[in-house]
Amino acid sequence: MLGTDEIDATTLGERSVRSAINGPITLGFPARPQPVRLARLVSAAVAGSVDASIDDIEDLRIAVGEACAILVGHATTDGRVEITIAVGSDSMTFDSRLTGGRCDDPQVDELAQLVLGSLADDVDFRLLDTGASLTFRWPLAAAVDADANVG
Hints:
The chain is an alpha+beta fold.
């Protein structure tokens, strides 16, 4: 929940966030395709809070959707996906976990893996005894631009 010190009233009386969302955001949902849109929406909100471009936000939404699709494809009917999104000084990290059961014959979406690998950095997918984990890093454009200007 945002604290009152993170919200600034505009001249129109609306509220806007002054800075990046502080602290990690965690979201859990049943391992089904329908709630994945919520994960994409939350990731877009976090990216918007760090002034990511519209194109970067859309790429991140796609990456999050593909990551969730990979986990959902491995889930049993009791499966649950939990994601945590955290903003660092130079990147956002996406950490997701499938719990509650992993099917023996998962639907491996090779296209989702290819898309995710092309959009995100440091993608790590692991099968666990009763689930799976998937993490990736998303570089922040402001940090990338600053690094480019240093050299």
